[in-house]
Amino acid sequence: MTTATSYMLEVKDIHATIGESEDLTQILKGINLSVKAGEVHAIMGPNGSGKSTLSKVIAGHPDFKVSKGEVLFNGENILELEADERSRKGIFLGFQYPVEIPGVNNAEFLRMAYNQRRKAEGKEEADPLDFEEILDSKMKALDMDSRYKERSINEGFSGGEKKRNEILQMAILDPALAILDETDSGLDVDALKVVAGGINRLRGPGKAIVLITHYQRLLDYVQPDVVHVLSGGRIVKTGGKDLALEVEKQGYDWLVK
Amino acid sequence: MENAANKNPIPAPADATFAPTAPVPGAPAGAVAPGLAGEEYKYGFTTQVEMETFGKGLSEDVIRAISRKKNEPPFLLDFRLKAYKKWLTMQEPNWAHVKYPAINYQDIVYFAEPKKRPTLTGLDEVDPEILKTFEKLGIPLDEQKRLSNVAVDAVFDSVSVATTHKKKLMESGVIFCSISEAVHEYPELIEEYLGSVVPVADNFYAALNSAVFTDGSFVYIPPGTKCPMELSTYFRINTEESGQFERTLIICAEGSYVSYLEGCTAPKFDTNQLHAAVVELVTLDNAEIKYSTVQNWYSGDPQTGKGGIYNFVTKRGKCLGKKSKISWTQVETGSAITWKYPSCILVGDESVGEFYSVALTAGHMQADTGSKMIHLGKNTKSSIISKGIASDFSSNAYRGLVRIAKNATGARNYSQCDSMLVGHNSSAHTFPYIETGNAGSQVEHEASTSKISEDQLFYFQSRGIPREEAISMIVNGFCKDVFNQLPMEFAVEAQKLLSLKLENSVG
Fold it and tell me: B436 in helix, strand or coil?
């Protein structure tokens, strides 16, 4: 359970690589990050700074190897756990580029994910009719067309539709910790507002949110408590929401030097 | 068996059954997900039954003995002997994309039957061990225990041991019985139609089957009749050294309809068993046959490739009548080697042929399967939807022929062949042959190769869905177009079977 400091997420001196032996690239070079329940953290940074890698390391993508450090979730080291186990403990990753899965029905997929979670919590699984009610209400809140239910996962979705689908999945899984990787990219203003609304609905005392973003635009709608700037695989600056505005004005160069 | 992954030379076909057009190689393997080899075969048990078998080997005497044993009319013995003589002059086909050691045809038992013979009156005479076997396989033969809407013919090694619901079917004039029984009860139908779709010398295995076939199912649907229930045959190989050579003949008279299902399992043996069946379908004017197969023969040891069934089968339907239709749906998940091409000869004008296939290969399995659509009549239509999934060290080939005859004006074909690769060592191949004899016809062919990517699996996992279930969901999604064609109960069964095969697949 949580320690006296009650951090939900603690990333401690994480070093991570991708690739095999001669082709090995070090991407994360000692990241420290502590997030309490109730907080919203934003992670900004230039392209290639390691933002997406950090999110995938926390979520457990097998392509990335952690060479040093640990990741604690509610005080438990989760690095040995499979990605699906981490998810069932309450970690959610919203993808920058959600993958298309032809032939697998979106609604069935959502119900399966939902029921995996219910099972892990020792609750009864939802039958298709019960689940449909839950799904319909969540979709309504995100202004989503019911055709989404019939379609294959992300197949033929526009960029904006994919992002909305990510937020829908988050709303259904109701995770303790949501890491959203550039969920704002490729959205027009209206879609951005809808997505931001979805994120704000998740916000609450028992929840933590980590927003990875390139621009501060999203932060106009979802106010962060803490802002970090990531560069070259390290966090180079941490501050309040003013930091995001400063980055917006001046770019990253002054921080990176 | 040799693992021929990724670098298989594409053999040129040299057999009349497939025209020697340039083959199109399939894409090489390279997916990241580990294989499917862990699956346990739950039908691998053997049953202790007192059997009467002939000695090993094949000769004219053996054929005469089979015919005598079954008290056959002379025309059938002639049919057998003609086939045997042809067979002696024929070569085993070598154009399929499969490898196996030479089969010694003198080392096979050609007749094996349980000593307790069934009678026409009921199940009392059937060896209780056999009844238990079918019960264990989920096919209870006791009519009280059966679903009321499916009639079953159960074939155990060489003979049909029981056929359910015969009485009820008879009320609507439907004949459903073992082919041995049909030879005695309806000799004129047998004489007219047996070999009319697959001639005795059609190919090596069909000739062998024609010479030695021992049993199988016979169906006749009278004119204007929609068969009141699904018909099915369940094939079980039990004896280690016996081959199974069953023969199925289905005739749908004018304006009639039947849906027919076929299921197969066999025990685990270290040796290979030969299964060389022939299925013939005939539809007259406006008649329709829907033929579905779920094949789960033992596929050999997943690690070593030892044992398993050689499934060398000739299935063909003839749409003889105008506007008649034959639809094949197959889910092939078993056998060490599968060699089968359920086909349609579209003779009648406006007749329709369909082929829907899912072929899953895992371990060291090899499949060379597909379809042939031969358009002879005008405005005939055919479609081929094939989904091949190759994992572990297996090889999965689609082979298909679309031939449009000169006079078959207005003919149309649509073919779609999709392959999915799982793991680094499997391979998928596509060999489509298209021959059009006239300019007024339309042929379309689409093909794709995909693999389950690590990113797709991670996507499922990041939503709390374990890898195995993710693979199973993706594969089932890939096969959806075909499963939709199966009768409801079979579709559920097929999905479960695929999931079972995919279980323990990820280490």
Answer: strand
Closest residue of B to A93, CA-based? B462
Q: Residue A93 sits in a domain of what CATH number?
A: 3.40.50.300
Query: Does residue A1 belong to any structural domain of this protein?
Result: no
Residue B19 lies in a domain: no
Domain count along chain B: 1
In a domain, A87, yes or no: yes
Domain count, chain A: 1
Determine the structural domain holding residue A203 and report its residue range.
7-256
A172-198: average pLDDT: 92
Partner B contacted by A155 (CB < 8 A): no
User: Residue B334: which domain range?
Assistant: 51-502
Indicate if the alpha-carbon torsion angle A239, A242, A246, A252 is positive or negative: positive
Q: Nearest Cβ partner of A83 from B453, B458, B476?
A: B458
pLDDT at residue A135, as a whole number: 94
Q: Judge whether B346 lies within some domain.
A: yes
Q: Residue B28 domain-assigned? A: no
Mean pLDDT over B255-263 rounds to 91
> Which residue has tokens 């700037």?
A229
Q: Is the pLDDT of residue B489 over 80?
A: no
Nearest to B276 by CA among B214, B232, B365: B214
Does residue B2 fall inside a structural domain? no
Enumerate the β-bridge partners of residue B343: B316, B372
> What is the C-alpha to C-alpha distance for residues B455 and B33, in angstroms, rounded to an integer?
10
Q: Is residue A184 part of a domain?
A: yes
For residue range B361-387, list pLDDT tens digits in order.
988 899 999 999 999 999 999 999 999
B130's tokens: 């056999």
Name the nearest CA neighbour of B484 among B296, B252, B290, B311: B290
Note whether B443 and A69 are within 8 A (CB): no
Q: Does A116 touch chain B (CB under 8 A)?
A: yes
Instruction: Determine the Cα–Cα distance for residues A94 and A179; give it in Å rounded to an integer.
Output: 6
Extended beta strands in A192-242, E state: 208-212, 226-231, 234-239
How close B475 gets to chain A, by Cα (Å)? Answer: 9
Cβ–Cβ below 8 Å for A84 and B461: yes
- Whether residue A28 is contained in a domain is answered as yes
Distance CA B273, CA B263 (A): 17
Closest residue to B466, CB basis, from A84, A104, A117: A84
Residue A222 has pLDDT above 70, yes or no: yes
What is the ipTM metric for this complex? Answer: 0.95
> What does the pLDDT look like over B389-420, one tens digit per residue?
998 888 999 999 999 999 999 999 999 999 99
The helix (H) or strand (E) run that includes residue B404 is: strand B395-404
Residue B359 is which amino acid?
A: A
Query: If residue A114 lies in a helix (H) or strand (E), which one and from where to where?
Result: helix A106-120
Min distance A198 CA to chain B CA atoms (Å): 18
